Amino acid sequence: MTLRTNVRERIARTATDLFAHAEYPLVDSLTYGPDPGLFGPGSSTWEVIGDVSAMVGGIRALLIQTAHPEVVAGVAQHSEYRADPLGRLSRTSAYVTATAYGAMPEVQASIDTVFGAHAPVTGVSHRGRPYSANHGGHASWVHNVLADSFLIAYQTFAPSALDLERSDAFVTEQAVLGSRLRADDLPLGQVELAQWVSTHEALGVSPGMTDTLAFLTNPPLPAAARTGYRILLNGASATIPPRIRRILGVEPPRGSLRLAKNLLAVMRWSMGSSPSWWLALERTHSDAPAGVRFRRPPPATGAAERFTANESAGS
Questions:
Q1: Contact of 162 with 48, CB cutoff 8 Å
Q2: Chain centre to alpha carbon of residue 103
Q3: Both ends of the chain: CA-CA distance in Å?
Q4: Which residue, 161, 133, 132, 168, is CA-closest to 147?
Q5: Are 252 and 210 in contact (CB under 8 A)?
Q6: How crowded is residue 286: how many other Cβ atoms within 10 Å of its Cβ?
Q7: Cβ atoms < 10 Å from Cβ of 36
Q8: What is the pLDDT of residues 91-145, one digit of tens each?
């Protein structure tokens, strides 16, 4: 193994190990071919979620979601994120992977899991308002913030941004997923979505926000991942709308965007695009878009053998 390959493997392993604490959701995906799932080849969703900038999008979403007192009360009072942070992170990653790249049975299984986990998440926030994780308004906040964050992260940190038609298509595609999660307020364009998030009326400081932010800014990560996480966290914070940053009380250091972009460039070189994107393309017998490279097969049945056969063709 050359030094270049060894460095590439070490970087990739450090990042992927953080998400390896839950079962891979697409282990049998190749048996569902050529099912395109919710989005399919050529979709903006496959492109956006397939880039390493989605890691920043996930961090950004977690930060912004805490600004809703009722939503974060549900997290603070019901979640096991403190006892099992990497498990929670891995399960969230599995949900994003399954709904983005899964065949329809895999998509539906992931959505059913979400509904089952959310069913007991009910209570009252510190300001006396009831909450329910499956409430349409609260589901809208969680879903829309996640969609907005993935898109903003891609537009900020990917090698080239989507044009307006492709970015609007991403939002419209994500609204299809949101409707299946019973979200009841789903913008259909990039500008409308960003405005919906940044001007949301229900936001405010809360005890749950303070506690969750303290955890998110200093999670118990392996030593090898801490510096990289801090860079991505600061990069994510720098993309948050000013009003929400003030509510959260976060102020990223100068140069945060540049550092995050540089780190993501190294991670993109090391990891390539999402292995689950490759799996979805393989399942649907579709070619990879020009310039997209996949460096690792996913842990799905039969994927390693088929990946080796396709790797020389740029898959």
A1: yes
A2: 18
A3: 21
A4: 168
A5: no
A6: 15
A7: 19
A8: 889 999 999 999 999 999 999 999 998 899 999 999 999 999 989 999 999 999 9
Residue with tokens 């069913």: 119
SS3 track for 91-113? HHHHHHHHHHHCCHHHHHHHHHH
Alpha-carbon torsion, ordered 122, 109, 102, 25, to 10 deg:
90
Query: CB–CB of 144/151 below 8 Å?
Result: no
Residue 312 has pLDDT above 90, yes or no: no
Length of the chain: 315
Q: b/e map of 288-297 (b: 16 or more CB within 10 Å)?
A: beeebebbbb
Phi, psi of 90 (to 5 degrees): -65, -40
Q: Which of 164, 157, 156 is nearest to 44 (CA)?
A: 164
pTM of the predicted protein model: 0.93
Q: Is-contact 43 78, C-beta < 8 A?
A: no
Nearest to 197 by CA among 162, 246, 147, 232: 147
- Residue 8 has which token pair? 């590439």
In this predicted structure, what is the pLDDT of residue 77?
Answer: 87
How many CA atoms within 13 Å lie on the side-chain side of 44?
23
